[in-house]
Amino acid sequence: MTPFLRVLAVDDEPPALDELAYLLRADPRVARLHTASDATEALRVLRDTDVDAVFLDIRMPGLDGMELARVLRRFARPPAIVFVTAYDDAAVDAFDLGVTDYVRKPVRAERLAESVRRVLTARVVPSHPAAMARNEEDPAIPVELAGTTRMLPRSAVRWVEAQGDYARLHTAEGSHLVRVPLATLGERWADAGFVRIHRSFLVQLRLITELRLANSGYVVVIDGTELPVSRRHTRELKDKLVRAAKHDWSK
User: Fold this and answer.
1) What is the pLDDT, as a whole number, of residue 31?
2) Residues 170-199: pLDDT tens digits?
3) CA torsion angle for 88, 199, 188, 71 (degrees, to 10)?
4) How far apart are the first and last CA of the chain?
5) Phi/psi of residue 34, nearest 5 degrees
6) Half-sphere exposure of 219 (CA within 13 A, CB side)
7) CB atoms closer than 10 angstroms to residue 137
């Protein structure tokens, strides 16, 4: 596969589109660049032209960037999608769509260069069916780290802690704050083994090493950290732990 990309940039604000197009054209790995000022124009371009990646604003009139991304995902050969936005409140929806990157405005040249690198990696490496299946089974969520957005695989998350309208994702290396309610993650991650143990905590069931009675009630232990279990979740959690153990024994 050629290491040079055919790219479509989409933004309804002319200054933002001009800046994005300028930075992409300056990258020697971008061989051809098309632009569109809205989703309708983008679809017209895509009808007549094959592209490897779409760099896409989210908040646009008419069909917005998130809706357009869902349309692109249904293509026989979907392009890589990079969201370029001034907002962080679409991070979880972006992760559900399996986007390659999530770039915050104002866009810096070095940050966009990193996105191009990620697109190239995504286009060259995961074309094998087994690799694609792994990506679908372990989607990534955009998180901020020292001013840079990185894609954190869901499998790295040990437990999640509610912080108002935000959620803090705890990993073995640290934690990351994302703008999404704990209840939303609980619904979306249930099939991946995450269970609600408390109004403020969501945990990966398979990582629980202990469930014990403490002075204030039950707690679970994950990576040596005690997390409280509320009364209303205790019986359901016990049942799930028993079922999980029986499943392991029957293997």
Assistant:
1) 92
2) 999 889 888 888 988 898 898 899 999 999
3) -30
4) 41
5) -115, 155
6) 10
7) 10
Please, what is the Cα angle at 207 between 204 and 208, to 5 degrees? Answer: 95
pTM of this prediction? 0.59
Report the amino acid identity of residue 105. K
ω into 106 cis (within 30 of 0): yes
Token code pair at residue 221? 């232990």
